[in-house]
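Progress narrative, Year 2. Work on SMI1/KNR4 family protein from Clostridium drakei advanced from sequence curation to structure prediction during this period.
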Amino acid sequence: MEFQVIRKLFNIKQNNGFSEDDICKACKKHGNLPLTLQEYYRQLGNCKHINQTQNSLCHPNKLIDTGEYLIFYKENQYVVQWAIKKTDLYKDNPPVYCSWDENEFKLESESLLDFLYAMAFFQAASWGLEYCSEDLYMISKEQAQIIKDQYKKIDYELH
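Result:
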């Protein structure tokens, strides 16, 4: 697993992840972590411009256990949290759930990999890329249609 979509988007050629020791300690503390999350932590976990702009990837030793879910990503003001069911921690690429209160969780993405791709695109648009804009633009329905006709929608999204 190389996360090629994210590497291409952010022009990342070298790994910039967390230490193997940090990842192993998190796996031991929580029983396991999904293979996709372990690999993401190893390869891209320490890339601030991907994981610490608008929303934040939790450091492996700062995962939040809510009882039934393990929070691994959080919105910058902690308004929203993204988590994996603890019963799914042994799956390689489990679904991701979203919560506003750490009590009720709803399905966000069918797979962790799709979530990480969608979050990378969101982060890129939220000050993660060197030349991104903070401006908001209003466009007409006709302009929106031109954009839809010219560009293919990506397969992953945040709900």
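Residues 112-128 form the longest helix (17 residues). The mean pLDDT is 91.
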